[in-house]
Every structure is written in structure tokens, then in C-alpha cells.
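haha ok so turns out i had the wrong file open the whole time. this is the CORRECT one, sorry everyone. sequence first:
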Amino acid sequence: MKTNLPPNSFKQALRAGRPQIGLWSSLCSPLAMEVIAGAGFDWLLIDTEHAPNELPTVFNHLQACVGGTAAPVVRVAWNDAILFKRFLDIGTQNFLVPWVQNADEARAAARAVRYPPQGLRGVAVTHRANQWGRVTDYYQRANDEVCVLVQLETRAALSQIEAIGAVDGVDGLFIGPSDLAADMGHLGNNRHPDVKALIEAALPRILKTGKAAGILAPVEEDAKHWLKQGFSYVAVGSDLGLLARGTEALAAKFKA
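then structure:
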């Protein structure tokens, strides 16, 4: 059956400024992914940088997300065109790119996920992304429907907000508070007042570029604060964190 490529609802929501509540996923379990995909979140981060998720597992994660409420976002292990190409062909539309330090690196990511002439993505004829050749307008619309979020994780990266935000093909700037805290000399303490102050100073600069601002904030107080300030896509927890803290609490309840 022939069909058309549906619009990327997550990308549309970012452009409209609608708050998108997300969950970080590192469990590497398609079964767990299927459970959380229908929990009511707007997006899920499938992590391949700091979790042992490889291409076949991500393929299964994407399948598990079908029919759920949440748009899958894949964090690639590095800003590498070969990695992008493989995730694109299995159907990834939304990417979080770690450790982007300047406009050239952001531009490289934006080009890696797009077909020529806008980019340098390699062309495969039959793959999951075009539903095995059944999406008749895939090559005409794929470039427009891909979403690129670049992660700013150092003071050097934050100094380049305006230049990075001006890159065509970048849809959002995402602050990584833990690496930023480490860069500032506060390793393991991303809630340090100096870190928070730097993030607060960066936010209006991101918004001024016209790109969506995102952040990871697993502490409820922080998540509510950043949403109120104007971050539009916020990861409010992680599946690993929920499992670890939830099981600890249940065990402690009965062991006491």
C-alpha cells in the first residue's frame, strides 16, 4: 500500500512553542520502551552515548514506540555522519547531538541528516524509514521532517549560542547541565548556584535565536522552574532513575 510521509509532530510542537515533556531512556529494553512509550510523555530520549544501545536495539525501540504517545529522539554517540546515516535508515527522525561546540559542528550535524543538495546523506532505496519503498514522497519530504537538536555542554559552547542558533537546519539547543557543571568545576553538582545562573543567562539568548530550548531536569523542582522560565522541551526523569529509586523505596519499606 502506497502512502505519504506523515509530518513530524514533535518538530511541529517545538516550532509552535508547545511544552514537550520527555523521559530519558537508558534501560536498553524494547519491552520497557513499549511500556513507557504509552505512559503519556511527549518524547523519549533513546540514549546511545551513555547507554549500551546499539543499532539493532534502537531499531527495536523505534518499533516499540509505534502507537505510543511519545516521539522517539535518538542521542547519537557522536557527531558522526556514518552514525546518522544508519539511524536515519531505520526510521529515526529526531536527533540529539552531543558535545556541539560551535556553528561548524552544528552545521555538520544538520548536513549529515539531509539528502543533497542540502546535505550529504547517502541514498538507500528500500528501508524502514520509507516503509520499504511504500512512502511515495519520502525523498521530497525527508529533509524537512528531520529534527536536529544540538547539545551545549560547556562554557565554550554557551559562548557560541548566537552562531549555533543561526545555523539553518538546527531546530533546538539543548543544555546538558551535568557536563556544564563539570566544565565549571562542579562535577556531580549540576544544581550549584553558579551553574543555574549560567543556564538562566543562556536561556534568553537561545530564545532570541528563534530555536527551541531544551534541558534535562530530573529533579521536579528544577523541571518546573525551567518550564516556567521558557524551556520548551524538558526531560523530567529517566527510566533508570525511576527503576533504581522506586525499587529502593519498595525494598526499604518492607526491610524496615
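The longest strand covers residues 20-25.
again sry for the mixup
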